[in-house]
Amino acid sequence: MLNLGYCKGSMSTASSGGVSDQFPAGLRVLVVDDDPTCLVILEKMLRICLYEVTKCNRAEIALSLLRENRNGYDIVISDVHMPDMDGFKLLELIGLEMDLPVIMMSADDGKNVVMKGVTHGACDYLIKPIRIEALKNIWQHVVRKRKNEYLEQSGSVEEGGDRLQKQSEDADYSSSANEGSWKNSKRRKDEEEEVDERDDTSTLKKPRVVWSVELHQQFVAAVNQLGIDKAVPKKILELMNVPGLTRENVASHLQKYRLYLRRLSGVSQHQSGMGNSFISTQEATYGSLSSLNGLDLQTLAAASQIPAQSLATLQAAGLGRSTAKPRMPMPIVDQRNLFSFENPKLRFGEGQQQHLNNGKQINLLHGIPTTMEPKQLANMHHSAQSLGSMNMQLNAHGDPSGSLLMQMSQQQSRGQILNEATSSQVPRLPSSIGQPIVNNALASGVLARNGLAESGRGTGFNPVSQSSSTMNFPLNTTAELTATSFALGSAPGVPSLTSKGVFPEDINSEIKGPGGFIMPSYDIFSDLQHHRSHEWELQNAGMTFNGSQQSNSLQSNVDVASSVLAHQGFSSSQSNGQGRNISAVGKPMFSAGDATDHVNAQSLGQPLNNFFAENLVRVKTERVPDASLQTTLFNEQFGQEDLMSALLKQQQQQQAGIGPAENEFDFDGYSLDNIPV
Amino acid sequence: MERTQLRRQVALTRQSLFDQGFLDEQFIQLEDLQDDANPNFVEEVVTLYYRDSARLITNIEKALEKNSLDFNKLDGFMHQFKGSSSSIGAKKVKAECTLFREYCRAGNGEG
User: Fold this and answer.
1) Contacts of A45 in chain B (CB under 8 A)
2) A1 contact B CB<8A
3) I need a labelling partner for A628 at 20 to 30 A (CA). Which of A518, A599, A651, B14 fits?
4) CB-based contact (8 Å) between B93 and chain A?
5) Please, are residues A383 and A364 in contact by the beta-carbon 8 Å criterion?
6) Which positions carry Phosphohistidine (chain B) (predicted)?
7) What is the H or E stretch that residue A290 is in?
C-alpha cells in the first residue's frame, strides 16, 4: 500500500550503506500460505510495517503472479506445508526463476526442517506464530541479496562472492533468531566494509561478468579437467586464462555450477525415464530444459516446473553426472513450469518449470545452462530438435521466454520445418520448442508450441507468421510440453523432437499432427547454428529425434537433447550478456537430455542445446533492444527465456528482417516470418 | 450504561481466557494490530479461524472414524491446526494439538 519511493534501483546501486530514507517502507512482499488465518494476520502485520502486501493461498497462483510481474516483488514469504506444492519446491523455483529472497515459515521448528530450508536456499526461516518484530526486519534480506548481486557483478572484490554470501547466510540464519540483532547487522556491516575496502574501484557497481557460452565452456572444461571436487576458483581461473576475469567471478559461478550439478543428480534420480519424468515433475522441467532437444518437450511439459530440473537431468544425462537432484520436479501438468524454466537457476536450460524459476537450486544451472543453450543452439542446427528442445526449454522459462523460444524455435523450425515438414505449422513450433520450457505463459502452450504448435495449433505463437503455430505458447495446458517435443517428432525426418507424451495432452495431440512439425526446428537451428558454431554436432541430435514417437520420443529426444543441451548450455550460457538468460537456456537443454536414455537424443540434444543456446544468446544480444521479449526474456530470472527469445530473435533476424513477431507470449518481436520457408 | 457494563463483561471474559490458559501473548499481538483502519480486525481473524478450523475438525473426525488410523494424515491435520491456533494465540488448542501429534507419532490410537 505504501509505495514511498521505495525503489529498488536506488537500493541496489547505492553504496552499502545508502538506502533511501523511506526504506524499507514500500517493500513489496508476496505471502503464500494455505492457512487463511495466518495469511490474514501476516498481511496485517506487514501492512503495519508499511510494506506492500500481496497474499495468495496457493503456490501456483504465487508463481504466476511472480512470473507476470517480474520485478513486481522484492521478497516472498512462504509456508512450508502447503497442499498443492511443497514449500521448498516453491522456494527453489522462485530462487531459480526470479532470484528473489524467500523466507520460509512454519509451526514446525524441528532442526531438520529448518536445515532443509537453508539448503534449499531460504533466506530465513520463521517459526509460527509469527511476531511482528520478525517481520520488521525482513527487508535486510532484500538488501543483502542486492548487495551480493552487486558484488558478484563487480569483479574487483577479492573475497569471493561466496564468502560474502555465506556470511550473509550466516547472518540470515541467525537473524531469525535475533531478529536482526545488532550483532548480525554489525557483522554484515563489517563484511561489507571489508569488501568495500578491497574494492579498488570504490564503486559497488561493477560491470557484470557475462558468462557467455564460450566462457562457460571454458569454465566447464577447466572444472572437468581439475575434477569437480578439486576444482578451486583459483585453479579454474588459471586454466581458463581469461583476461579480466576475477577469481571471485569464478568462485560465484562455481558455486552456482555446483548447485546445478547437485540438482541434476537429484533430478536424474528423480526421473527414471527422463522423458516422462520431466514432465511429470516440475523439477523435471528444469531438466527438461536441457533436453530442449527432444526432451525439451518433455521438460517443457513438466517444465514449467522444472526447467532447472530438466536441465539438470539433461545435464546429468548429458554430463553423466548424477548430481543433486533437481529439486524441481517437472510437473508436466505445470505447463507453465514446463515451459518456463523459470527457475532462475535453471535459467540455463531449465526453463522447464520455470525454467528459470528454480532459482536457488538451479543457480548453477543458470550460469551454465544458459551458456549451454547458446551452444546448443548452435549445434542444433541440425536438428530441429534442438529447436524443439530449445524451445521447450525456453518455453519452460516462463512464458515470456517461452514465447521467445517459441518464436525462435518457430523461426528455426520454420525454416527447417518448412523444408522438412511439409506439414505444418508445426515447424513453427519447433522454434517455439525451445520455448516450451518457458513456462511462463507458454507453459502449456509452449510445449504444444514447440512440437505441436506447429502442427496445427498455430495458436500460441501468433505472430509467427510462419504459422508455425508456435503452438500456442500460452497454451497453458500442460500438454503443451508434449508439444514441445515438438515437432521433433512431427516430421519423420525431423529431429525427432517428438513431443514427449509427457507434455500436456493437449500438446501431444498437436504435435502428432505435424509430423514434419519438428522439422522446422531444425531449420531454425541450423540457422542458429551458424551463429555459434559450437563444437557440438547436432547432427546426431537432430536426427535421432525422429519424432514420430511424438510424445515419448520427444521426451527422449528432449532428454538427450537436454543433456546435450545442458552440457552445451553450460558453456553457452555464459555467452549471453544476460548470462542468466542464457544459462537458463542452456539449462533447459540439459534437463531435456536427462530424461531419456536415448543416446541419440543426447548427442542431439547437445548440439541442439548449443545451437540453441547459442542462438539464444545470439539472439538476445542482437535483439536485445528489439524485442520486448527481451525484456521479458531477460528477466533476471529467466535466463532461458531470454535465451530463447534471443534465439528466436536471432532466428527471426536471420530469417527475415526479423520483424518482431508479437507472440502471444510476450515475444515481441519475433516475426516468424523470418524463418525461411 | 449498558455499554459500559457490556464492556466490562467483555474485559472480564477476556481476562479469564488468558488466565485459564486459553489465550496467550500472540492474541495480544493480534489486538495490537487492530487499529482505526480495521476496527474489527481481531473479530475477522477469529471468525476466519473458526471457519477454517471447523473444516479441519471435520476432516479430522472423518479420519478418526476409520478403522485403521492414518497417523500421517492426522499428523498433517494437526500440524495445520496447530499453525492456525498458534497464529491467533489459542494456546490451549495448540497444546492439545501438540499432544495429539505425540500420540500420532507413537501410533497411539487410544490417546
Assistant:
1) 33
2) no
3) A518
4) no
5) no
6) 79
7) helix A284-290
Complex prediction ipTM: 0.84
* Residues in B touching A106 (Cβ below 8 Å): 83
In contact, A391 and A542? CB cutoff 8 Å: no
Q: With a CB-CB cutoff of 8 Å, which residues 35-64 of chain B face chain A?
A: 35, 38, 41, 44-45, 48-49, 51-52
What is the identity of the amino acid at A225?
A: Q
Q: Which of A45, A107, A132 faces B82 most closely, judged by CB atoms?
A: A107
Query: A468 with A667: CB under 8 angstroms?
Result: no
Neighbours of A69 (CB within 10 A): 13
The model's pLDDT over A228-256, given as tens digits with 9 standing for 90+, comes to: 777 788 888 888 777 777 788 888 888 88
What is the rounded average pLDDT for all residues in chain A?
Answer: 52
Count interface pairs A-B at CB distance under 8 A: 60
**For testing contact with chain A, the best of B84, B96, B97, B98 (most A CBs within 10 A):** B84
C-alpha cell at A163: 564468502
> Do the beta carbons of residue A577 and residue A621 sit within 8 Å?
yes
What is the pLDDT at residue A268? 55
Rounded Cα–Cα distance for residues A363 and B10 (Å): 55
A535-550 CB burial, b ≥16 within 10 A, e <16: ebbbbbbbbbbbbbbb
Contact A120, B92 (CB under 8 A): no
CA A5 to chain centre: 31
Whether residue A310 has pLDDT greater than 50: no
Is residue A276 classed as helix, strand or coil in its secondary structure? Answer: helix
Residue A235: helix, strand or coil by DSSP?
A: helix
CA distance B86 to chain A (A): 5
Per-residue pLDDT, A234: 82
Q: For B86, which of A34, A36, A107 is closest by C-beta distance?
A: A107
Peptide bond into A24 cis (omega under 30): yes
Per-residue pLDDT tens for B9-63?
A: 888 888 887 777 777 777 777 777 777 677 777 788 888 888 888 888 888 888 7
Q: A115 — contact with chain B (CB < 8 Å)?
A: no
3-state class of A195 per DSSP?
A: helix
Residue A596 has pLDDT above 60, yes or no: no
Domains and CATH numbers, chain A: 28-151 (3.40.50.2300), 213-264 (1.10.10.60)
State the Rg of chain A over Cα.
21
Cα–Cα dist A475/A290, whole Å: 21
Residue A466 has pLDDT above 50, yes or no: no
CA angle A81, A84, A256 (to 5 degrees): 75
pLDDT of residue A267: 60
The runs of H, that is alpha helices, within B20-90 are 25-33, 41-65, 71-88
User: Can you say whether the dihedral through the CA atoms of A166, A171, A175, A177 is positive or negative?
Assistant: positive
Reading the block at residue A304, the C-alpha cell is: 514449467
- Nearest CB to A107 within list B52, B83, B89: B83
Per-residue pLDDT tens over the stretch A655-666: 444 333 333 444
Residue with C-alpha cell 548487495? A147
Q: Give tens-digit pLDDT for A521-543.
A: 344 444 444 444 443 433 333 34
Name the residue among A315, A297, A341, A251 with its Cα closest to residue A637.
Answer: A341
Whether residues A38 and B45 touch (CB distance < 8 A) is answered with no
